[in-house]
Amino acid sequence: MTDNPLSGLQGTIRGTVITRDDKEAFTAARFRGWNHDLNRRTNPLGFVVASGVRDIVTTVNYCRENSLKLTVRGKGAHSPYGMADDAVVIDLMNMTAVRVDPDTKLASIQAGANGGDIDHETALHNLICITGSVSHTGFAGVALGGGIGHLSRWLGPVVDSIVSYEMVTAKGEVIRVDAEKDPELFWGMRGNGANFGIVTEFVLKLHDMPNDGIIRSAPILWPDAKAPDVLSSWMKRIARPGRKNTETLQFAFLHSPDGHPVCGVVPLIVGETEEAAKGTCDEVAAYAGGALVRQDTQMPYTAMQAALDDCFAFDKNYWDKGVFIDWDPDNEDAVKKIISTVVEAWAAKPAFASKLSTFILLMEVNGAVAKGDPASTSFSARSGRLWATALTGWSDDDDAQRAASKKWCDDMIAALSPFHVATYLNNAMPASAEDMRGVFSEETITRLQNLKEKHDPDGMFKAGAWDYQANV
Ligand SMILES: Cc1cc2nc3c(=O)[nH]c(=O)nc-3n(C[C@H](O)[C@H](O)[C@H](O)COP(=O)(O)OP(=O)(O)OC[C@H]3O[C@@H](n4cnc5c(N)ncnc54)[C@H](O)[C@@H]3O)c2cc1C
Question: Which secondary structure element, helix H or strand E, spans residue 57, and what is its range?
Fold first, then answer.
């Protein structure tokens, strides 16, 4: 090898190889990722922007033969693990094709695609698959860790709709993984998928979208001072027995477009008559003496899927932390404790926090998520009633603001600890061993370790995935 450790790749790749020597291109690639704070802290060796599967195979072989660290990221690049110091980053940002077969209701999705790329094609046929709740989040990262979307209460996590994967192994082989060919690897991929190979294509089962893809959604808002009353009514409503899984009611603290702190309930109602859907929203809008602003309306589900996109622009500073929680709805003390915890957390948000990007989200994840067999996939967080997340952004490259943002998120999640049922792998920022306990059961960890030993004995994919081996 010469001084440039990637020189042997240049000329063998049809896509683009970017080394540290190409300063402008290297900086652009490094800061392409979603989280500026993580981008500036990570200094990879270089980037291979792959044009197709062959470039991925070539790069994996090259890295293995030259003992180079390797990570992979898609167009989304939202996670802390898509880049690592001194690693070759295989970037799938140009591999975003989505092909829908309306007869079989299957989609073949290239692994670099984001949620918006998928909705764009599936909506043509009034079909849907679960993607993340921000449409520029990468599908691969969402799907490989479980995948909770706006409509998961109706359709379950992404992993329940996966039919097969095409992937490149640590040996550089291209294999297809499904329930028949390798049931154990198929199980492991659906919940901890970033650990065993590089996925090049997902095949997914799609679902019919009723009412020509039109749903009732958009927020119903109150001043945040009304939050205790709104939360109290909402928590009773979502615990009501016999609710249809096609009804999801999300709660959020956020800022209005003119910068006022507000709280809101966002209905997501699928397949109802307009009269019935509006009736549900009328009931919600009456909470706490009546809403301040009511925007719920009929809209294409693709608009709902992209509604939050502008709140989370690329290359800004962010911290977030989330956990799945549950409680006994008949236990009034538990309900009061959850309400006081989130209300106090919202009041304690840092003064410098970005108004656009600071949220406390309480997303419903029960319904079809809970109905799936916990043993069927390695995604193990099925028992939560809510996914509780604190998320904030800050403007300057300032370590004190970063620390305060992290503390704000950590404190809220810690205060909810009596109600924790699981940590979500996809929701864990650069994680300590302590943070990561609770993602998987001991039994699941043992099975995952066996898979890792079999499929990645030399740790080729270690730098780009949560290293559970180091954390148990
Ligand atoms: C604004 C925002 C909104 C979010 N909303 C949701 C949500 O609604 N639901 C939800 O479930 N999660 C959500 N998340 C969490 C999200 O699932 C994770 O951050 C996820 O890792 C992001 O995936 P990505 O593809 O964008 O990231 P990337 O950084 O590209 O990849 C994420 C991980 O997957 C690995 N990886 C990427 N591509 C491949 C591949 N082809 N083969 C193997 N490994 C690969 C990477 O190495 C890395 O470990 C959200 C995150 C953010 C920042």
Answer: helix 53-65
